[in-house]
């Protein structure tokens, strides 16, 4: 039986931790690639030497040569710079746009049939760049946003109610920026609408904390951004493809008329399975939610307009 081949581009905090989760879950064999010489090789060997202890059988290799990524089933792009306190994700655009484009060209050259999961920020623009540079169908390229943002919102709600994290479900939609849209109306604890369990002012505080969730971690770390929850989130998306799970997840997907938007990537609920983004789901939004989603997507378009694509 053929094993899945997963390439992670960028062996920094997010990339190396993606490899860690992928190995621990035995999602396939893993190739870590980075421009920094020795880093992917060292981290890959270190991770593989955990296999006898943890009991996983993934082969993990590190490289600086894209030829070693050939015939990957799935490629995760984490290459690029992370923000520091005082910066927004948009401040990363001018550096990361070129990195995402060149990396995508290399990916496609060696793995013409892969799925591409984009992490590099600002992610909705990076996903657009990867989509255009790859020439792939839109179902094969998507970005990490809502799974992470929803995980943060779920965490805050579970702690507030002192219940299991797993029992909270929600959607955070829109661009992965400060005006992302946590949807309180679609937030449940064990099937019960959270609006019935938590006072409105407490919920609003958690919505605000979710919107600033990335910056909260950046302000603690000082020299980089979050990576445990981001990499766990991206590997959940990867698992859905590799195991054809058909889960409904909020992801940054290419819109072709859904929610009244075209030719842009933004966070929407979608069925994620063996064909990647199998279907984008349109949920009912009230006037305020719809306006917030449009504003958030407008911010993504403002960034896109800064690029000469
Ligand atoms: N979408 C999200 O929800 C989300 C979540 C977390 C992080 N991020 C983003 O992910 C990116 C990576 O974050 P990190 O914490 O891992 O940063 P990091 O600095 O720890 O790692 C980035 C790695 O990319 C490598 N790199 C740079 N250019 C490269 C190239 N051309 N080819 C291959 N590798 C290259 C660097 O050498 C470095 O090892 C950042 O842009 C960050 O903002 C996004
Ligand atoms: O906030 C960042 O810069 C990284 C990432 O987008 C996050 O939400 O943690």
Automatic annotation (TrEMBL):
Enumerate the active-site residues: 176
Which biological process annotations from GO are given for this protein? Answer: lactate metabolic process; tricarboxylic acid cycle
Reaction(s) this enzyme catalyzes, per UniProt = (S)-lactate + NAD(+) = pyruvate + NADH + H(+); (S)-malate + NAD(+) = oxaloacetate + NADH + H(+)
Q: What is its EC number?
A: 1.1.1.37
Query: What does the entry list as the binding residues for substrate?
Result: 83, 89, 121, 152
Pfam families hit by this protein: Ldh_1_C, Ldh_1_N
Write down the top EC class of this protein.
Answer: oxidoreductase
Recorded GO MF terms: L-lactate dehydrogenase (NAD+) activity; L-malate dehydrogenase (NAD+) activity
> In this protein, which residues make up the domain named Lactate/malate dehydrogenase C-terminal?
148-306
> Lactate/malate dehydrogenase N-terminal domain location, by residue?
5-143
UniProt keyword annotations, A-Z: NAD, Oxidoreductase, Tricarboxylic acid cycle
Where on this chain does NAD(+) bind? 10-15, 34, 96, 119-121
What's this protein's function? Answer: Catalyzes the reversible oxidation of malate to oxaloacetate.
Would you identify the family this protein belongs to, as annotated? Belongs to the LDH/MDH superfamily. LDH family. Belongs to the LDH/MDH superfamily. MDH type 3 family.
Q: What is this protein called?
A: Malate dehydrogenase
Protein's organism: Desulforamulus ruminis (strain ATCC 23193 / DSM 2154 / NCIMB 8452 / DL) (Desulfotomaculum ruminis)
